[in-house]
Amino acid sequence: MHAVGVLEAGLCNYVLLSYGHCGRSGDSMMRMLAGLNAEDAVFGHFGATGGYALAARRAMHEFRTGPETWKRIAVGQRKWANLNPRAMMCHRPMTDEDYDRSPWVVEPFRLADNCLLTDGGRACIITTRERARDLRHPPVVIMGLGMCNPAADPAPASHLAGPTGARRAGEMALRMAGIARDDIDACEIYDCFTYTVEITLQDYGFFGPGEGLDWLQGGTIEPGGSLPVNTSGGLLSEAYFMGLTPLTEGVMQLMGRCGERQLGPKTGNKTPEIIMCSDNGGILQTHSCYILTKG
After folding, report:
1. Active-site annotation holds for 290
2. Structural domain count, the chain
């Protein structure tokens, strides 16, 4: 068992970092992208949005999902962001009509289906349970971990409509934690795109293929819902800090440090004891799952 603590300053959305690609000209960026995936780029297809759009199209064919399902995710997560003063979209509520008017990026994805672009920093501390007892904030314990990496090239891959690596990773984490899926009080899901949230929750077993729209009805993932998801607003509506956005939000929720969005009486949700977090890489090519609980 390890304990996880979050650095107070590590959640600043406004600390500028230096990334290797910053400052490149548009021509240089295009050359870099073409060099990374030249066979696709010559057909005008490059970048994560195009790759995930292919995955989403396949899912529309396989189990009849689509924008009506993803709308519930985008709108639901925005409601959490509206309670989060650090969120980039805090003061920008989203209605169903707003989603429908959002411009296309790569069909079937609209702008509202895409994660944010953010400069900033976020950090957490992992230490032993014994040392964590002396820290200022109550510790959070890692109950279970799981990882599965399909790692296939997206074009011929069979996992784009599931099962992704989430299925095995989730099973491993639950087995290590010694709990059942029904013991999970909330989820913090890596949400580079709305479809990523759907396929991850589906592969974790919260609903079956094609059942996502029904499962999401009635505000399931929203404030007051039965399974809160991405309570900071997530990558879609808070800020993009890769896997640290969901992980640190899970830690802070269990520490009770989330202010107006704190799960419990303030939001009309159950006070959480166990939270499942995810991370995802490539075009659904890698997956890790973490299960956290109060220390």
Report:
1. no
2. 1
